[in-house]
Each structure stands twice: as structure tokens, then as C-alpha cells.
Amino acid sequence: SRDEHEAVAGASHFLEHLLFKGTRRRSAREIAEAIDAVGGEANAFTSQEYTCFYARVLDRDVGVALDVIGDMIREAACNVDDVEAERRVVLEEILMHLDSPDELAHSLFCEAHFGGHPLGREVLGSEASVRAVGRDDIAGWYQRHYQPDNVVVAAAGNVAHDHIVAGVRHALGEHGAPAPSSPVRTAPGERGHGVAVRSRPTEQTQVVLGGPGLPRGDERRWAVAVLDVALGGSMASRLFQEIRERRGLAYTVGSEQAQHVDAGTFNVFAGTNPSQVGELVEVLRAQLDDVRQQGLSDEELARARASLAGSIVLGLEDTGSRMVRLGRSQITGTPLLDVDAVLARIDAVDHDAVAEAAQAVLSGPFTLALVGPVDDVDVTALAEHCAAA
Questions:
Q1: Where does residue 361 rank: exposed (0-12), middle (13-18), buried (19+ CB within 10 A)?
Q2: CA angle, residues 204, 209, 210, in degrees to nearest 5
Q3: pLDDT band for position 102 (50/70/90)?
Q4: 58 Cβ partners below 8 Å, 6+ apart?
Q5: pLDDT digit string (tens) for 187-201?
Q6: How far is CA 78 from its chain centroid?
Q7: What fold characterizes domain 194-386?
Q8: Torsion angles phi and psi, residue 346, rounded to 5
Q9: Do domains 6-172 and 194-386 have the same CATH topology?
Q10: Cβ contacts of residue 190 below 8 Å, gap of 6+?
Q11: What is the rounded distance in angstroms from the CA atom of residue 7 to the CA atom of residue 136?
């Protein structure tokens, strides 16, 4: 979605939907029936940097999956009636997103943090952009980007490489139109900071506090991942223990990071009673400052490393996770490390590495996003917690 012009914001996600509406030889129902007939599932998702179409089937039916997904990518119909029908579906998805205060708070954080940069836009687009985008806009986006030379195919499970290659050649063809030129992407400039609020008549106020993170290729990402686990990634984490267990300020609390090719974010989040927003933000900022200044204890560091390593290994028991890992590595140009190499990098994270990572992602200035009842919130006082360390 970051490659879209503002006038067609949401086109990538819209097209993700539209490819399931039919091809030149299959209707939407026939696409669904082909996968259902083998007990499989097919779906898709769109991120800021790529769209993924995937299917999960028995190993004997991999040819069916390749044929159906390949047909969708090569021969999408993009009929006018389908565009109008799916426009209504996408608008409902946007409304559903707007009705989810926690999701909306994270979107507001990105919008405020990245300003006018495309990374600050919602992948879904806006109600206005989705209503305005035309069939020709969608079809043009499809024709420019959905070419065989621009596709990465990843498979995991009981598969033979040569068999997959043959199936891909059959489904997508040896050659298509020349691959489109790589989009010209600009890295985000100076990031926004301060307080962004959106009033909603909810019982809780959702809070997101964060700042710049690391791009995907930065070697410090291993230390940031360990820091993320220690700070808010588990029930034993600093934020969970301090904010939920000790103070009872929130039910949901945690931390997260997002990595892009040329940028990243790191934030902490929680939902609380509107009367407690000031206290919650103060405690969140205090925890960030404490970790940045004092680091982690030996016990915290060891536990976070072990937790991260264990979650990665357990995740690789799922073929879907393996598939996404393979595909994402290829399409983003990130080196694919084997499991032993990943675990070695995690194990190598020491106190110095965590300290360097904390300085990089916890020094601010910060962006604070609030969604919920905000009439009684002292924005000026909260803005003080967004200042750089």
C-alpha cells in the first residue's frame, strides 16, 4: 500500500478482494468450490510492502492450489459489477475497523508518527478514497503489478521443489509482460511527535505511545526483539507485571515493533478507564525510561532470550508460518537465515546490545495516540511525556 498514490489509497487491498471475485474461466463461486472440494482453504492479506495470496491443501492437491491461485493472479476479470459489489464489502471492512478502538489507536499512531508519508496511511484506504477509486484505476493497478515476473512463490510442507516449479510454470507461464519497474520509495523524513486524539464513546480509552524503530535489515533488530519481549511481550514482562498485576490499570497491555525496508516503529499500548489515562501514560513513559537508563536484569535478559527463541521454534512447526517466512524473505530482500543462525543471533544478545537497542528505540521524541472518551484528558500535560529523553 505504500506504493499507492493518495488518490488511489487502498487500491492494493481492494484488488486483493477483487481477485477472489472471478477470472476469465472461473466465477467467484467456482474459485471457492475448487478449494472446498479438496478440503482446503484460501485467503489473502495486504501489508504496506506486499500482498500475499495463499492456500492450504493436502500435499496431493498442491496442483489444485497452484492452478486456482495462478488463475486468479493471471486472469482476474475485474468486472465493473464485481468492483461495485466489492466496494461495498471493503467499505464495511473499513467501518468494522473504525468500530475497533484498539485497531484505530494503532492506525492513529502511525498516521501521526509518519505524517503525510504513505506508511502513515491505513492499508484499507479511507472511506473517501475507496468510494472514489474507479474500475479503471483498479484494473490499471492490476495490469501494472500482477505480472508473473513480479511474483514470488513460496511453499512449505511435504512438497518436492521440482514439482512446485513445474506447477508454477503451468499456472503462471514461463514469461509474461516484463516485470514492472520497482516502485520509487522514499524513506520517511522527520517523524511526527506529540499527542493525537480521536474521541469515541467507549468505556475505555486506548493508549499507544511510541517512536521510531529499526528497519528490517538493521542487525540491531535481534536486540530490539529481545527488548520487546522483556518490556511487553509476555505475562512476565515489565509492563504486564507493573501495569496489570501491580497497579491494576489495564487488562490488555504490551509492546510491539513494526519493521519496513527503510523504517520502523516501536510502541507500547494499553486500554484503561478514561479517568486513569494520565497515570497510565506516566507509568508507561517511566518504564521506557527505566529500561533505557538501567537496562535489563540478568534474569530478565535470559528469560527474554529463551522466550523469543522458543516462540520462533514453535512457530516453525506450522507450515503456514514457514511459507510466510520464505516468501517475505524473498520479496523484501531480507537474507533468509536457518533456524540455528537465528537462535545464535538471539543468544548473542547481551546487556550492551540491549542498551544500544534501547537508546535507538526508547529515546523519543514519542507519539501518543488516544482513542476513546478524551474530553477530560489534559493533552498539554500528556504532551510532556512525549519529549525526547
A1: buried
A2: 155
A3: very high
A4: 38, 39, 40
A5: 787 777 899 999 999
A6: 26
A7: Cytochrome Bc1 Complex; Chain A, domain 1 (3.30.830)
A8: -65, -45
A9: yes
A10: none
A11: 13
Sign of CA dihedral 242, 248, 249, 252: positive
Largest alpha-carbon pair distance within the chain? 64
Q: If you compute the radius of gyration of the chain from its CA atoms, what whole number of angstroms results?
A: 23
User: From CA 185, how far away is CA 165, in angstroms rounded?
Assistant: 31
Q: Which residue has the cell 463461486?
A: 29
Structure-block grid coordinates of residue 375: 474530553
180 has a pLDDT exceeding 90: no
Torsion 2-357-315-347 (CA) sign: positive
| Residues involved in catalysis | 16
Instruction: Give residue limits of the domains in the chain.
Output: 6-172, 194-386
pTM here is 0.91
What does the DSSP assignment read for 274-285? GGGHHHHHHHHH
If residue 312 lies in a helix (H) or strand (E), which one and from where to where? helix 298-315
Determine how β-strand 194-199 pairs with β-strand 367-372: parallel
Instruction: Return the amino acid letter for 83.
Output: V
Grid coordinates given for 128: 473517501
Fold of 6-172: Cytochrome Bc1 Complex; Chain A, domain 1 (3.30.830)
Contacts of 283 (CB under 8 A, 6+ apart): 242, 243, 247, 249
Grouping H, G, I as helix, E, B as strand and the rest as coil, residue 232 is helix
Q: Count of residues for the chain? A: 389
- Within 10 Å of residue 120's Cβ, how many Cβ atoms? 20
